[in-house]
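A protein record pairs a chain with a discrete description of its three-dimensional fold. The shape at a given residue is found from the number at the same position. Here is what such a record looks like in full:
>
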Amino acid sequence: MRKKKVQNKYKSLLIITNTDKFKLPFGDYLRILAFAPNLKFKKIFFVSGKDLLLLSKEHDFIDSIKITNKKLISSLKKSSFIFDIENDGKNSSKIFYLKTILNPKKNKKQNMTDLIKNIAKYFKIKKYKLYHNKNVDLKTTKDVYFSWQAPNAWKIKEYSSNKLHLLNNKIKYELGLSTKFQKKKEKLSTYIKNIKSSKIVVSIVNLGCHISNLFDKNLIMLSGPNYHEDSSLHKSQITIFPKEFCNYHKKIFKNKKFKNRVGSLSRGTNKCYCMDNIEVNAIYNKIKKIINEKI
């Protein structure tokens, strides 16, 4: 097996990336790091720039290295199996190039849906899990944090602000819970801190889900036009889907809610309203259930 050959020769895994050369959505780097322990190396090193290191340093099973530390990286390249996220190349018993498993007929967003499944297939791992930090007993200062923002290209993933505020009032006044909303242009360090210090995270399909999973938070993920199957491996995560997809995505997805998918809008189509079909009460009831189970 490919995995055995790699393990027999190398004791450490070196994951290298340079977002100036090739950039993935930040959440997908976290998915890769969560999968990496399945490869059974004694040490896992991750090389990157400043922003990504803010995230990788939060992992208690990853050793983070600045991309500018050329001497250490050079030394590790000689003694480690390399998982290359930045370059093109031919796979061997020494190195794996992520780009070799990306389908050139699909765009980057589409390739990310099957990312973990395809990495596992390459390394011939049939059964795998996604790892989180061992120490998840963190001090909390609020009950619920709302991670609700999406980049401009992904606005169809956002939940209605009116519904969010309706939900916020409902849980504050009926359940007596303290809440906090993700701010516009919130710093990554603040974003991480807010998630770490919350008991429950309500998030659209964005970076907040992956950070929440890292700390094994009680996560309620609101999934409309986007979903990745590996999220079902997180035991502390609940996923809420629309009652039905919008007319455009209904034809594409055929109501297969738990299948990998990436929604988009082509020119001339009406606005996606998948997220509008997620009911406030469905989210409220899940929050209430989590709170009752903790009492």
